[in-house]
Amino acid sequence: MPNMKDLEYFCEIARTCSLTQTARLFGVSQPTVSYALKRLEAEVGSRLVTRNTSHHGLALTPSGLLFNDRASSILEQYRRAKRDVEVMSTQKIRLGLPPIIASALFPKIAVSLDRNQLLDKVNPVEVGSRRLTKLLLDDSLDMALLGTTQRVRHPKLESVPLLQSPFTIAMSVDDELADQESVSIAQIRHRRFITLDENFIHEAAFRNIARRHDFIPDVMFTSNNIELITGMLRAGLGISFLARIAIQPDMGIITKTISEAKTPQFNISLVTQQHTNIALLDDIAATIQRSVQE
Fold this sequence. Notes:
Keywords: DNA-binding, Transcription, Transcription regulation. Residues 2-61 form the HTH lysR-type domain. Belongs to the LysR transcriptional regulatory family. The protein is of the alpha/beta class. It folds into three domains: 4-88, Winged helix-like DNA-binding domain superfamily/Winged helix DNA-binding domain (Arc Repressor Mutant, subunit A); 90-156 and 275-293, Periplasmic binding protein-like II (D-Maltodextrin-Binding Protein, domain 2), CATH 3.40.190; 164-266, 3-Layer(aba) Sandwich (D-Maltodextrin-Binding Protein, domain 2), CATH 3.40.190.10. The protein contains ten helices and twelve strands. The chain has helices at residues 4-16, 19-26, 30-44, 62-90, 99-115, 129-137, 185-188, 201-212, 226-234, 279-293; strands at residues 49-52, 57-60, 93-96, 122-125, 143-148, 157-172, 182-183, 192-196, 218-223, 240-243, 253-258, 265-273. Strands 3, 4, 5, 6, 7, 10, 11 and 12 form an eight-stranded mixed beta sheet that branches. A two-stranded antiparallel ribbon has the order 1-2. The longest helix is centred in the N-terminal third of the chain and has 29 residues, at 62-90. It is globular, with a radius of gyration of 23 Å.
């Protein structure tokens, strides 16, 4: 029976159509990946991969297509079983927290978790929502609080909407636009922006608004550190595109809606793996939902 690492190599070959890229991803030599492929082909008694002469890469044979479908399912079940056993043995849940949501909501959530003797069962992972989604799909997380512009829909994931927060233009209380009720595209078109990087859904939402209104933002600085960004805003170095929930009353920063833009909402959801039957995970998920919605 083939080992799991050989299956992982094969599924990545199927995805990239490249031995070189697969080897680079796993940090091994190309011969290691080639030998794994040969072992699999010998095991199943059929050629799985062939050269694609038109694209100078690899292509799956009909047998390879069938095997990839089955192998992907086996790997998914293996990773899920491994994760479930790890949760049962360690009694720890890996919870993804985007920095904005962590700052705005987790203190309140932590109180509820502590009250229910669950806080020490949580292992937080703090990165942007885009990265957290990938970690969930790779079975590297058990659950996450995600910020998205649309409801999370994926066959591997279950999503429970918790709350919404509008995207806004954030600025210092001393900014020249601070006294206005809202701001126009014309007023921000030539301003300097301080933005979250591509791991955050803010970047894609802002890019879509700019494209709809035909302007290229002057982004002077990007970061994945929300405290750094708010500090620069407070110092008057620029303005930013942020969900209102990211700004607290004592920050010296105010937010303004964009008057003529149909701005998407920052949707916060609790996202977990589909068909996960772990009591600890269910208890933590229920506690988080109650805490946010109280």
